[in-house]
Amino acid sequence: MKNPKILVPLDFSELSEQALITAASLAERLGGTVTPFHAYIPVTDLDGFYYVGSGISHHEKYTEIENVLRARLEETARKAVPSGLLTGSLLDVGNPARAILYNAEKYDLVVMGTHGRTGFSRFIIGSVTEKILRLCRKPVITVTAKSSLGNLASLLVTTDFSDNAQCVFPFASHIAQVAGATIHLVHIISDEQLFGSSAAGELAARRRKDLRETADHFFHQVRDQVSIDVVTGNRAPHLEITDLAKRVGHDMVFISAAGHSGLGNYMMGSTASQVMRRINKVVFSVNPQGISPQEAEKMQDDS
Fold first, then answer.
1. DSSP tag of 250
2. What is the rounded distance in angstroms from the CA atom of residue 285 to the CA atom of residue 58?
3. Does residue 156 contact residue 186 with C-beta atoms inside 8 Å?
4. Which is the most buried residue in 142, 165, 221, 236, by most CB within 10 A?
């Protein structure tokens, strides 16, 4: 992911502006560029374009509306992104989720907020964001109002040892290599996997061996920056991941959008979904239905 082209969908909420800040920080570190994006549905009788504060009525021409939207888009971007990282703005008409998915094909990475203007709670992922996470063929970074990349010194990478989980490995490895960050490679063992205290110890030992092999194989370029950890507890995996990221102070969390139970590209993994709903960290996810482990490796090689 050298010199990535980063698409940042905006709805002009404070959270979408936080996505711009995160994208700019990542672009600076990876030598990338940032393109702010907005899609609108031209039903002015319903929305009145209240969010741009333009005062334009539905009788006025769409070209004038687009001019106002583009000016607002560029103004918002300039406040958060250094001019040298910006590649202009992108405006589209239509369903926001569909427009993002279509335009994302021309970019390497999508950075967006977990909620839009209609988000009622931090425990509810915005409908547009959820669709992007389920269907986008490019990696997606989600941010909350309190997310920050910090100095990008510590990365938390989760795995359940499925092929799906491997999709995030090449990206985590590359970012660690460029930023000099450490990688905390973690596997969670929940109570339902255990049948007694002796079984817990045996399973944990096997999983540590599996983690060492995973680190040797997938993170060989940064192997001396990788530590491994098996977490055994009575809480659900997403709670263990959330607590670990907060307690250790990781700057970014890597997780596959689907794990062992992922049934298709219309189902988002429950662990990934719950982590994104609850954590105030930057989360890097990959939809394994859109990107296979082999494709992820190729994306890194090609870049």
1. -
2. 39
3. yes
4. 142
User: What is the edge-to-edge ordering of all strands in the sheet holding 182-190?
Assistant: 90-93, 33-40, 5-9, 109-113, 140-143, 282-286, 252-256, 154-158, 182-190, 226-233
- For residue 265, which phi and psi values (nearest 5 degrees)? -75, 5
Answer yes or no: are the C-beta atoms of 42 and 62 closer than 8 Å: yes
Residues contacting 152, CB < 8 A, separation 6+: 25, 29, 175, 179, 181, 251, 252
Topology adopted by domain 154-302: Rossmann fold (3.40.50)
Helix orientation angle between 293-302 and 169-179, rounded to the nearest 10 degrees: 30
**How many Cα atoms within 13 Å fall on the side-chain side of residue 273?**
17
pTM of the full predicted structure?
0.85
Q: Which CATH superfamily is domain 5-143 in?
A: HUPs (3.40.50.620)
Q: Cα dist. 237→58, 169, 171 in Å?
A: 49, 19, 22
Task: Give per-residue pLDDT as tens, 90-115.
Answer: 999 888 899 999 999 999 999 998 86
Q: CA-to-CA distance for 166 and 183, rounded, in angstroms?
A: 14
Q: If you ran DSSP here, which 8-state letter would residue 86 be given?
A: B
Domain boundaries, the chain: 5-143, 154-302
Task: State how far the Cα of 6 lies from the Cα of 139, in Å rounded to an integer.
Answer: 10
